Amino acid sequence: MQPIVLVIEDDDAIQGIVEDALREGGFEAAIAKTGEEAVTLLKGRLIAYRALVTDINLLGRFNGWEVARAARDVDPNFPVVYMSGVAAHEWPAQGVYNSIMLHKPFAPAQLTTAVSHLLNGLLAVGSNRA
Amino acid sequence: MQPIVLVIEDDDAIQGIVEDALREGGFEAAIAKTGEEAVTLLKGRLIAYRALVTDINLLGRFNGWEVARAARDVDPNFPVVYMSGVAAHEWPAQGVYNSIMLHKPFAPAQLTTAVSHLLNGLLAVGSNRA
Amino acid sequence: MQPIVLVIEDDDAIQGIVEDALREGGFEAAIAKTGEEAVTLLKGRLIAYRALVTDINLLGRFNGWEVARAARDVDPNFPVVYMSGVAAHEWPAQGVYNSIMLHKPFAPAQLTTAVSHLLNGLLAVGSNRA
Amino acid sequence: MQPIVLVIEDDDAIQGIVEDALREGGFEAAIAKTGEEAVTLLKGRLIAYRALVTDINLLGRFNGWEVARAARDVDPNFPVVYMSGVAAHEWPAQGVYNSIMLHKPFAPAQLTTAVSHLLNGLLAVGSNRA
Amino acid sequence: MQPIVLVIEDDDAIQGIVEDALREGGFEAAIAKTGEEAVTLLKGRLIAYRALVTDINLLGRFNGWEVARAARDVDPNFPVVYMSGVAAHEWPAQGVYNSIMLHKPFAPAQLTTAVSHLLNGLLAVGSNRA
Amino acid sequence: MQPIVLVIEDDDAIQGIVEDALREGGFEAAIAKTGEEAVTLLKGRLIAYRALVTDINLLGRFNGWEVARAARDVDPNFPVVYMSGVAAHEWPAQGVYNSIMLHKPFAPAQLTTAVSHLLNGLLAVGSNRA
């Protein structure tokens, strides 16, 4: 049984690269074409997704920043990896805590390392969860 | 010349504790009573604030999450410390990256350590700033 | 209302230094003279201790390594700071994760910084809490 | 000459996955079937193992927490990765410092990333080694 | 378009291992045979190298420590991975900040994890970049 | 017995601030007026200095970057805090690993937090010390 990673990416070429990288790392990739679809899947909780890998500029009503916040509403520790070229500079203002921003173009190893690092619980936190 | 920290807190008792803690640590505290006032000060850039310390539930139109995003729009590395009791659980979804969430009640040393840690540049980042 | 730190130290001189350092940082120190007493207090949960500061070689049946494990049984994220001279080399084998080892002699600022750092949630974790 | 990783896992299926993952990453896996065997190998120092990857519930007298402590007695910086399903919640109390806990099921990439991260010396330490 | 990593290694066997590891991770490796060549390439800025992977003892006038400093003069955040056997002990005195030292022999996964980790921006920094 | 911190600063005003901050944190400050004097004291090993706090532009032959490297030659883990205004931008190329760069002007709490953080062993390392 492999950890399932939810991927939101409408560019077929990049989607293929992401799927290949995750599969080679031993993850299963589940694809959502829009932010709405991803939010519905995350909130439905029918499948135990373990991480979100998302582009920023998405088809439909939600962008990647908003999907990540919805995922964190469902699970406060949910691992998030953003991928972007043009929107990467917005990450310090829009990205959730303990997420990773991959600037396009990136190597597949950067993606699997980022997802693994988050799943291994290795990013510093900054809240005492009193 | 002391580093100036912008503080948004409308509870006078906590504001006093925060001011005392910062002053004892050698910082100067500048107080804003509302989020609007803070955003105006940050965007005006008349004073070189070095960090933001903000409550979450603020008087007026903006909450602390929104003020922090506005501060990061102005400066992508701007240090942010949130203080809250009831809203602390929203931090994983609403807090900006490389920020620190202090759960009330906290000790003054936690505040000065948090501000110093951010100003010393010691929180891990998660973007390659390519 | 100040965060309460449970301190186990039978050397009166060091106990005084630790109490003074914590009080100056805005913490309240609660003293236990033995490991048994500390474990009883932590398991009783009558007082919401926020951190443990403990010597290693203690009077009575438990040493500091054992008290820390008992504290983590009660709360998996419980902040732990060990203090020792001679037993510090045992820390890599005996210390719990996300704890800090202070080698005696240490400066009071090292103690308040260590406690604050743990309460601020800033040590890296290494578990995905799936 | 490849770095040798000592693996303790009696479930043949998981052992195979771990071996494959390590080999693909360029490590050599040496298998021990019990904790006693592992402790004997580590203390014998005939082979320079570079990391320990261990299940928690082991055949024989020792569990994974105990083997890790024995490994750290031999080498205070010895990299340790634990793997478990049911016993993962004990890690905050039983795991040694600077170790990584992998919750089953995990992807092979998580394992190679964890071992590499520890061998690269990238986990924060918490002792001044004065 | 793959991220390009500049590699300085005159031992053909190790150069081959490094190239294979980077290529499998989805990076492109550009080889320099000497430190002078590497410094010329970095300063020329014709190609946007994303990271430096360098041996310490190099043919010619510059050693790896000096090439890394030259790279950081060009770009203060330039990712650096050193590889060495005999010179690894000089790293605490000679290595630049936010670099990684790989002790030979290392596994290919350690190299791709190290390069990815630096490109993902995950090493702690220690400067407030005021 | 207090931990002794070696301070190199020829500006009397800043030297006074540094001394006061260290003393209030429970450290003892030993002053060197030049880099040569500091290197002689560190290499002589008559006093067990626990950390170095140094300006960059020094009177005499050595600058702060060179003194830090000399300190690390004596002890590979020696904690180093640099202080500078104009030379801070050279830190990524010239600063040793696991050091902290304080940009002038800084608050005294930043200095004691930085020294404490290094003495507490909390900066990530990047070498496997195989």
UniProtKB/TrEMBL annotation, chains A, B, C, D, E, F:
Signal peptide: none annotated. Pfam families: Response_reg (PF00072). Residues 4-119 form the Response regulatory domain. The keyword Phosphoprotein applies. The keyword Phosphoprotein applies. CDD domains: REC (cd00156). Keywords: Phosphoprotein. SMART domains: REC. GO terms for biological process: phosphorelay signal transduction system. The modification 4-aspartylphosphate is found at residue 55. This is Transcriptional regulator. It comes from Bradyrhizobium japonicum. The lineage of its organism: Bacteria, Pseudomonadati, Pseudomonadota, Alphaproteobacteria, Hyphomicrobiales.
